[in-house]
């Protein structure tokens, strides 16, 4: 029964991936990709990695799909504006070399991966055992959080820095023509939905953050949920990103600043960079995570909100026929 | 991970339910491919979200993992957002 389920799941995942690649219609590829994210979350579940499943569910279902739909809307609006035509997807056939090259490199990578699996070196130490051994010193009960925020917190610190740089670039590229989505805030359905949906989202975001210290969860997943709530509010027509622009900028950097401050201030006591005193490690980790959740939420939301609103909302895709 | 090893028939029962839902999901995949309109595809994706919640809950029983209920909760809350983005951004201004 286990095997049958896993095989079916694998086949569905491959079908979905093929659907993304072989789709000439951009929107179909996007929807396929949303479905792919969901199936991937299920695969992570079957691989006993609920942390990854949680992240995939939050990012894949909540944010990637929205970003891509937004991008397709921009593209189609742009195309309609400039050429009076939709996507030119039935255009020239790709050159021969542009087909051979990807296939060739994919085969090479596949062979290399196969070799890496076949001749993998024996692990000198069993890392899971090592983590389990030193878990009591980390201040949290969940091994993944212990690794991310204590044993290997350097990686996490740099990840936050990368996210921050990404959003700074996005803000720099933003054209200076931000208008609120006109006339949208009157939509009664969206208003009703946001009144019912956003509060539970915020509560669940905080819960996931809190749960991170003893079970799957944590700052990134909580932040993604927070970001999804903000994206929803923006889509519903609330001009939240204009409410407090300077506050938003502080919030974006807050997580990184707090993380770095804690990481360096432990050095005053003569400890190495990024090692927390054991007695307060749990509290410090939770404090950092809470700040990170806030910042990650704002960062992910900013990546969405920095995109300009569509030039002219199109309804051209509504009646579009399958053209394959 | 903790595997309390519940009664095998119960595990198989929940796995069968999850598998059945997965089959309906593959059927939905066909609808995404076939279309014909963007709305059909988006609704199929929305159905994926709901079915995914069901599969996750069934799997949480089959695998005895409480954390999967959280995953299902997150998925249930966030699946609607893609739909809202679709309606707002691709179907023109609301009247």
Automatic annotation (TrEMBL), chain A:
Main subcellular location of this protein, as a coarse class: membrane
Na+/H+ antiporter MnhB subunit-related protein domain ranges (all copies): 193-285
Residues spanning the membrane: 6-22, 29-47, 53-75, 96-119, 156-173, 193-213, 219-240, 247-268, 280-304
Family: Belongs to the CPA3 antiporters (TC 2.A.63) subunit B family.
Matching InterPro entries: CPA3_antiporter_subunitB (IPR050622), MnhB (IPR007182), MrpA_C/MbhD (IPR025383), Nuo/plastoQ_OxRdtase_6_NuoJ (IPR042106)
Organism: Aliidiomarina maris
GO cellular-component term (any): plasma membrane
Keyword Cell membrane part of the UniProt annotation: yes
Intracellular or extracellular location(s): Cell membrane
Keyword annotations from UniProtKB, A to Z: Cell membrane, Membrane, Transmembrane, Transmembrane helix
Keyword Membrane among UniProt keywords: yes
PANTHER family referenced in this protein's UniProt entry, alphabetically: NA(+)/H(+) ANTIPORTER SUBUNIT B, NA(+)_H(+) ANTIPORTER SUBUNIT B
Membrane topology: Multi-pass membrane protein
Pfam families given in the database record: MbhD, MnhB
Protein name: Multisubunit sodium/proton antiporter MrpB subunit
Domain spans labelled MrpA C-terminal/MbhD: 12-76
TrEMBL record, chain B:
Molecular-function annotations in GO: sodium:proton antiporter activity
Bilayer topology: Multi-pass membrane protein
UniProt keyword Cell membrane, yes or no: yes
Main location: membrane
Record's GO cellular component terms: plasma membrane
Transmembrane annotation, as ranges: 12-30, 42-60, 66-87
Subcellular location: Cell membrane
InterPro entries: MrpF/PhaF-like (IPR007208)
Keyword annotations: Cell membrane, Membrane, Transmembrane, Transmembrane helix, Transport
Family from the record: Belongs to the CPA3 antiporters (TC 2.A.63) subunit F family.
Designated name of the protein: Multisubunit sodium/proton antiporter MrpF subunit
